[in-house]
From TrEMBL:
Protein name (record): Membrane associated protein
Species this protein is from: Granulibacter bethesdensis
Family matches, as InterPro entries: DUF2125 (IPR018666)
Length: 386
């Protein structure tokens, strides 16, 4: 019996030693080759950490923690965090799991700095082994565009958007160079954001936002709180090439690239609206789009905008006349009864009327039905010789 126990203990030590060696190898590969892009990659990505990575997770997980990471794209900082966990598990050996920790900032040096505290966030990225003969020597991200290469799930709370610097309009008081924005300008706060982003040959995005509290710098027509907004969109195919932006856009247009807003909804006080549409680029690389926008109680909505001073009386009469051409009966539009739009559908059914308006953007002109209403400036990449 003693000999049996001795063999079991010896076997456990050997197994633990082998597991530790494998764990140490995986941790070293994570540090050296997978995520620490200390030099800019051909696609412009670079990840830096302000201190050495901390290892952990033994015996079942290979995990590193990067203190104060910064992500750069083309030399420009796009994200900062308190820490970033990167791990590989034996259940998914060819998949990296990344989890930001603590307070974070997106676009930290932009006119609109986005601060947030993640309730939960994770990004999965497929990896592949690099072999030297018969021996694996590394783990690197597998960026084959024919495969699913990115899956991001994010639930964030207490998201704050702060106007800063050139993002302010001339009518706003300038931020103090030391104390920053004056009281009341501090921020637009978002109670909760839930987002799922999936990138393979196409980019699919689902995003839901709840309880957006607008800054009290001016009266808002439908109240200072936007109760809910959501969007489901898709870009197909996604432009993976590492060429210049204009060439990438032209390649996407030549491949019959399409972006689709499958569903977008907004609940803001008495305003209940939704839209869907799709578009692309014409031969001059100018946006083209068509779709349908739906709004409950259009007359009430326009009246609120007029009373709050957001539209002039003359424009109010013109808009009211135009919208009256599209006003429908009491039942909610079919698109509003889809899953995920229950709140909007119920409001539309209870409203006296709704308006469902077809719109089209072509040749830089936005048309409502057959009526041109707005000249849209072409994007900077468009061919202006036309």
């Amino acid at each position: 019996m003693r000999r049996l126990w001795f063999r079991l203990v010896l076997f456990a030590f050997v197994l633990a030693g082998a597991d530790y060696v494998l764990w140490q190898w995986a941790v070293n590969r994570l540090v050296e080759q997978s995520l620490l892009w200390t030099q800019q990659r051909p696609d412009g990505l670079m990840l830096k950490a302000r201190a050495a990575a901390l290892s952990g997770g033994w015996p079942l997980l290979a995990r590193i923690t990067l203190p104060e990471p910064e992500l750069f794209v083309g030399g420009y900082p796009v994200w900062q965090g308190q820490a970033l966990e990167v791990e590989v598990s034996p259940w998914h050996p060819l998949q990296l799991l990344m989890r930001p920790q603590g307070p974070q900032a997106a676009l930290p040096e932009s006119p609109w700095k986005i601060l947030m505290q993640s309730a939960s966030a994770s990004v999965t990225l497929p990896v592949r082994l690099v072999w030297d003969g018969w021996w694996p020597v590394g783990l690197v991200p597998d960026t084959d565009p024919s495969m699913h290469i990115l899956d991001l799930h994010l639930t964030a709370q207490d998201v704050r958007l702060r106007p800063d610097g050139p993002g302010w309009t001339s009518a706003d008081p300038a931020p103090h160079p030391e104390t920053g924005p004056p009281a009341g300008y501090d921020i637009t706060t978002v109670s909760r954001v839930v987002m799922h982003l999936r990138l393979d040959q196409a980019l699919a995005v689902q995003c839901n936002v709840d309880d957006v509290v607008l800054p009290p710098v001016r009266p808002w027509p439908f109240g200072k709180t936007v109760q809910h907004a959501s969007v489901t969109a898709r870009i197909d195919p996604f432009p993976f090439s590492n060429v210049q932006r204009r060439d990438k856009i032209r390649t996407w247009q030549a491949a019959s690239g399409v972006f689709r807003i499958l569903d977008a909804t907004l609940t803001w006080g008495s305003l209940h609206a939704s839209m869907a549409g799709q578009g692309g680029l014409d031969d001059s690389l100018q946006p083209v789009m068509q779709g349908v926008a739906t709004m409950a109680s259009p007359e009430e909505t326009m009246t609120v905008l007029r009373d709050q001073g957001w539209i002039a009386p003359g424009l109010y009469m013109a808009a009211k006349t135009m919208l009256s051409l599209f006003v429908q009966a009491t039942d909610a539009p079919e698109s509003a009864t889809q899953t995920g739009n229950v709140g909007y559908a119920g409001s539309a059914r209870n409203a006296a009327s709704y308006v469902s308006v077809p719109f089209r953007l072509a040749d830089s002109v936005l048309m409502i039905g057959q009526i041109p209403v707005l000249k849209v400036p072409p994007p900077f990449w468009a061919d202006r010789r036309r």
